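Hello again,

I reread your note about wanting to compare the complex against the isolated chains. To keep things tidy I'm splitting this into two emails, and this first one only covers the full assembly. Below are the input lines as submitted, including protein chains and any nucleic acid or small-molecule components. They are followed by the predicted structure of everything together. The single-chain runs will come separately.
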Amino acid sequence: MRVLRVGDSDARLIEPVLHADERGSFARSWCAESFAAAGFAFTPLQGNVSLTRGAGTLRGMHFQRDPRPDPKVVRCSLGRIHDVIVDLRAGSPTRGQAFAHVLDGARPQMLCVPGGFAHGFQLLSEEAVVEYLMGEVYVPELYDGFRHDDPALGLAWPLPVRGLSEKDRAWPDLAGRFPWLAERAHA
Ligand SMILES: Cc1cn([C@H]2C[C@H](O)[C@@H](COP(=O)(O)OP(=O)(O)O[C@H]3O[C@H](C)C(=O)[C@H](O)[C@H]3O)O2)c(=O)[nH]c1=O
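Full-complex prediction:
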């Protein structure tokens, strides 16, 4: 299993061993012991799968607020996505930093995202299936987000953005809710 650090953050990009033979291939999509040894201790409480159509379509950015932030293990099982996480945790040395990865259904890579990060992705293929194990259950009252083009972050997206949900168009500016972002923007 290959474990890559994600910048200086405590997120991890894990590539499990791919056992290929004449039938195809086999890889683990999660393993408590080896993931913990890789620095990502995690207990899945919910599994999500989303099918998205149309290159450029974007889901996010979403996060679940304290006291129930939602760590997740994200895998693209079909197609290709530009995946972005943003550290929103108070006190984190990488607070405010964004980390982008291409996740490809042809590779069994998984992005291990601690709770307190926002997450979103844009399709690089015409269709994509994204599956993720969640370390916290969905709590609608704590479900939050910000726009992909929030002025406080300046996130770059590889394709013209399309297919946003009404909710993802309407998130309020982050700086109004996280003063430390506004201060940083004026630093
Ligand atoms: C997240 C979630 C949603 N829902 C319901 C709520 C809506 O009626 C429907 C679609 O929800 P939403 O439009 O928020 O789905 P996405 O835009 O794919 O949200 C996800 O996109 C980004 C990339 C993520 O990382 C999160 O896992 C998740 O926020 O599913 C549930 O029933 N359970 C859930 O856990």
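For quick reference: The mean pLDDT is 94.

B.
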